[in-house]
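[recover] target loaded
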């Protein structure tokens, strides 16, 4: 059973072929980063147009690399929510067209659910329940995953997402878009000192599992203009901001795992690609005797393999969608 996955929710046009829910045959990602670097962020209309230009070629390449033809596709999975409406529409239109023409099931996938499912591409034998931290450009949430498709929200951001905190702080430091990747690289390669600039970590009460990153952004915007920190190097800035974000993500995830009584933690979303987050989380989980699964970087950031994987479990559960499928800009997973 080959599932074609399609992802166009933001700034990557991606198509993938997943065999039997386990064997990733292809995962083609056409990034629009160069296009959006010019504007310092994603312009929705520009992103949609770029998806239109890329989608057919990306799907063709996914099939070619997988060594299959259109007639071999057993089902089409597509991200239809949440995301940029115009961007989502491109993927959904392509998916509907293929599902109709090939007479195969159409599987609509929630983008955040797909991020979580990237972990099943690494380890299809994950046993429930698990706690999953999803940290991306638009989301920072901690879920208790009790079974396939069964999510309970344990914590969420009250303002900015972790990726947003990386990207906005990076902009204040004069780093190019997307800031998270740049900050990671600068802190690592420049051996930045994470204690160079003291920055706030919002606790939000002793039992809270929520995040808040807006205070950090404000603190960075004041500190960069403060003569007191004029001598701080860019790697030291990057490491200090990164550490504040990582500290919050790790502390709350560990607290959530303890509160939920699980012994296995998953990471998901673009920010999960952060090398410092992975290192600190690995250490913290080892100390707390928790198992940790982290998808490879290419499966952390937006990709269609994770869409195909979540689609596979929908298909197994008989969750098939109709050709009247619509897109939605926002919708909570739980
Ligand atoms: O999951 P994703 O690819 O797209 C969304 O669904 O939002 O996440 C993108 C976010 C961006 O904010 C980007 O800066 C951040 O993930 N990101 C990183 C790293 N790689 C991507 N943040 C920190 N360190 C990284 N290595
Ligand atoms: Zn994403």
């Amino acid at each position: 059973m080959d599932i074609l996955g399609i992802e166009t929710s933001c700034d990557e046009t991606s198509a993938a072929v997943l065999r039997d829910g386990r064997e990733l045959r292809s995962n083609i990602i056409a990034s629009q980063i160069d296009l959006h670097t010019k504007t310092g962020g994603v312009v929705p209309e520009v992103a949609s147009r770029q998806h239109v230009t890329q989608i057919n070629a990306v799907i063709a390449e996914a099939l070619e690399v997988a060594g299959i033809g259109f007639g071999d596709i057993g089902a089409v999975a597509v991200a239809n929510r949440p995301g940029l409406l115009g961007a989502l529409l491109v993927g959904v239109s392509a998916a509907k067209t293929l599902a109709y023409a090939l007479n195969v099931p159409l599987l609509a996938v929630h983008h955040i659910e797909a991020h979580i499912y990237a972990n099943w591409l690494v380890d299809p034998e994950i046993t429930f329940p698990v706690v999953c931290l999803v940290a991306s450009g638009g989301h920072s949430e901690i879920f208790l995953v009790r079974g396939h498709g069964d999510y309970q929200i344990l914590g969420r951001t009250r303002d900015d997402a972790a990726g947003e905190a990386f990207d906005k702080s990076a902009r204040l430091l004069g780093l190019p878009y997307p800031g998270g990747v740049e900050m990671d690289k600068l802190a690592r390669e420049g051996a930045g000192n994470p204690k160079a600039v003291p920055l706030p970590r919002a606790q939000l009460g002793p039992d809270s599992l929520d995040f808040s990153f807006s205070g950090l952004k404000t603190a960075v915007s004041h500190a960069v203009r403060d003569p007191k920190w004029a001598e701080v190097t860019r790697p030291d800035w990057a490491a200090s901001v990164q550490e504040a974000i990582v500290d919050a993500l790790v502390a709350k995830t560990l607290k959530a795992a303890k509160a939920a009584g699980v012994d296995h933690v998953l990471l998901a979303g673009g920010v999960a690609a952060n090398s410092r987050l992975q290192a600190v989380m690995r250490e913290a989980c080892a100390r707390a005797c928790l198992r940790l699964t982290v998808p490879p970087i290419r499966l952390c950031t937006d990709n269609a393999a994770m869409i195909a994987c979540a689609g596979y479990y929908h298909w197994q559960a008989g969750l098939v969608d109709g050709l009247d499928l619509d897109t939605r800009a926002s919708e909570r997973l739980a």
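[recover] notes: The two ends are 29 Å apart (CA to CA).
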